[in-house]
């Protein structure tokens, strides 16, 4: 079932078997993208939404002087551009981090789903609002949190999001980013990010190495990050 991880990540509202079938039938096709391949470019007309089935995707913007700000990291089960349905275009890039597989939902099919099922409308709307809540938390990190806390907060968030879809092993999970990616996601330079990663490791909290995160002290990491998971709406 192509929507299994999406429904695993978003467990409310509960769908009937008929609604699950309708969601599945709205998929036009699946496709794959190579690592670092651009999936959506800014301001191009869009007629479909993308559900991530496998791999990791980023949303980002470039500045005129060549800097990049990562706006979101998407994991399997995420709709990466559901907001393109009403907007018909995006103002930022969507790109694969790793090789990815995605399912494509035509906007016309999304329209039918929302016209025929109030529950599906609520589910898709809730998914988009959680994306917005995560985005607000990232803004708080970049604007108000110290550098090491930003990284710790991100590691806490990604652990819970990946645990939700069964992609953690104990306190270890794959996060296939470079240190430059981490810096671009947290508003740091690569050099500063490297120093902060060393600090977190030396404090016995967490280690990021070669695209893998291992949490040594989950309660301590949460305290250090002042992490409150309520913005993820996991209940």
Automatic annotation (TrEMBL):
GO molecular-function term, one example from the UniProt record: DNA binding
Pfam families: cNMP_binding, HTH_Crp_2
Record domain HTH crp-type: where: 145-219
Keyword entries, A-Z: DNA-binding, Transcription, Transcription regulation
Keyword flag Transcription regulation: yes
InterPro entries: cNMP-bd_dom, cNMP-bd_dom_sf, HTH_CRP, RmlC-like_jellyroll, WH-like_DNA-bd_sf, WH_DNA-bd_sf
GO BP field: regulation of DNA-templated transcription
Keyword hit for Membrane: no
SUPFAM superfamilies per UniProt: cAMP-binding domain-like, Winged helix' DNA-binding domain
The protein's name: Crp/Fnr family transcriptional regulator
Organism annotation: Sphingomonas panacis
